[in-house]
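Running this now, will post back.
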Amino acid sequence: MKSRNLLLAGYCLLIAVLAGLAAAVGVFLRGSGATASGTSIRGEEFRYATDGVYAFNAIRVVAEGVGWDAVTLFFAVPAMVVATVFIARGSVRGRLAALGILGYFAYQYLMYAVFWALGPLFVAFVVIFPLSLVGIAWVWSTIDAEALAAGSDKGFPRRSLVVFGFLAAALLLAMWIPRIATGLSGDLAGAGLLGTPTLAVQALDLGLIVPLSLATAVLVWRRRPVGHLLAALFSVKAVTMAGAIVAMLVSAALVEGRLEVVPFAIFGGVTLFAGWLAVAVLRSAPRAF
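Update: finished.
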């Protein structure tokens, strides 16, 4: 048992190190800020970065990516390092926290692999996201869902998780369906393609995050043991992802000189609520079983 815990902790630490290195390169080697005008094959006019590791991407995309990388480097990676210490000690809560952080890494680097223009970090992206997916499966396999559910105390935020799961799915649907419709109507600027061939963010959110949100809400509502595992994955990923969006908006505002106040307020609130939810989920879980 101890050797298994140490091996799992080492694996999670490896992912944290790789993600930290990739994020550090994104933050500190983002380039000089030099840009050029471009026209996509669809005839969309946009400005893109001409140097740095994220060269050949729209400047808005680069700005958002640097913000996302900063959250990964200064928040998600340290959180994973702390989680590995508890995993090595056999902590259930440490494994639950790692489950959500691995979900964050898997989403981030899958997004990076399919969204960014081909660049020097591409290989890192396609290494980190499958490693994170394997990590999710590995951590999941070490936790007895029925024992977790039976050992969780009354502090488990069942109602809040159900409401938040449905609201998160509804928010993403409300945000992205109109944008998709706008793009299909031919208004590329309104759809925010920014020179890219498709809406990768929307595809991943609607194909991955919405189902995760709904599955968590339904299974927690129906008091299924697996709902406790999904609750940890969903809540921890939610706070890291919402925090990353806030950082992306701030980073973009520094480049464009204008903060999108409404999205900033919405996702700032989501970050705070998801943070409380994640803490409540982890604290309600047994320390070990």
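Residues 2-284 form one domain. More later if anyone needs it.
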